[in-house]
Amino acid sequence: MRIAVLSDIHGNIHALEAVEKDIKENSIDRIFCLGDIINFGAHPKETLDWTRENCDIVIKGEHDIFVADPDEVFLSNPFAIKAADWTYDQLSEEDFDYIRSLENFYEERNFILTHDEPSIPGTYHFLTSLRDAKETFTCFENRFCFYGHTHLQIVFVKKNKEVFSEKSEKYHFSEEEQFLISAGSVGQPRDKDPRAGYVIVDTEERYIQLRRVKYNVEKAARDIINAGLPEVFANILKMKKD
Q1: pLDDT at 242
Q2: What CA–CA distances, in Å, run from 236 to 15, 70, 151, 153, 231?
Q3: How far apart are CA 96 and CA 12, in angstroms?
Q4: Fewer C-beta within 10 Å: the chain N or C terminus?
Q5: Contact, 80 vs 102, CB < 8 A?
Q6: What residue spans define the domains of the chain?
Q7: Do residues 144 and 181 make contact, with C-beta atoms less than 8 angstroms apart?
Q8: How many CA atoms lie within 13 A of 141 on its CB side?
Q9: In what order do the strands lie in the sheet with 170-172?
Q10: Residues 6+ positions from 46 with CB-CB distance below 8 Å
Q11: Helices (H) and strands (E) in the chain, counts
């Protein structure tokens, strides 16, 4: 089975459409979405509709919750709050009902899906360190735990009692290994690589692949500005490594 794992789309339809094309070219069987479908970007309705129509499993992130039910989540970033107010006006009551219907955690025999910290969903902790990964591995027995929120692509591997961070773009795994995988961000990467990010896992050929896909970043940034959203979200899209 080939699974595509998407997270943190953040209303960026241009990035999402490029990822959709890449998914189709890679013969994916299932699509998982790890939340933060909306906010920051200029096309929340389009990204929400796409997710609802194309993803096999969808969970919600804090920005989805904040737009639909602002009293349920605390956000302190004034730019995120301003963007959420604008995003709210673009959506319908049916959209809010859909967001409210989503869980923030999903589990199968081999998989756990969560938006943030897998051991305590809803804390919105950024799981990026090896120390945190070692602690989190003690909290689940499933083969794969996929999470978002970090806007970074990270693969932590537990083999026997050893835990390490795997840096390769395509990692071929063995039967005894267990994984914590941060899927990165489709619509707002934070690693100074402007390409859209997502993850493919092939359970038959046994590999994890960190995918990056080019898209029209300038158009996405321009749409943010033209919508009157905070310019910071347009500038983040264009960040590159020195």
Answers
A1: 65
A2: 14, 24, 11, 16, 9
A3: 19
A4: C
A5: no
A6: 2-237
A7: yes
A8: 1
A9: 57-58, 30-33, 2-6, 196-202, 207-213, 170-172
A10: 13, 16
A11: 8, 12
The angle at the Cα of 30, spanning 219 to 236, to the nearest 5 degrees, equals 25
**What tokens appear for 52 in the block?**
């609802």
How do strand 105-107 and strand 177-183 relate by DSSP bridges? unpaired
CA-closest candidate to residue 153, choices 171, 178, 175: 171
Please state the CATH superfamily assignment of the domain spanning residues 2-237 in this structure: Metallo-dependent phosphatases (3.60.21.10)
Q: Environment class of residue 108 by beta-carbon count within 10 Å: exposed (0-12), middle (13-18) or buried (19+)?
A: exposed
Sequence-ordered alpha helix ranges (H) in the chain = 13-25, 44-54, 62-68, 78-90, 93-101, 130-137, 217-226, 231-237
Q: Is the pTM of this model over 0.85?
A: yes
Model confidence over 57-87: pLDDT tens digits?
Answer: 999 999 999 999 999 998 899 999 999 999 9
CA separation for the pair 27, 4 (Å, rounded) = 10
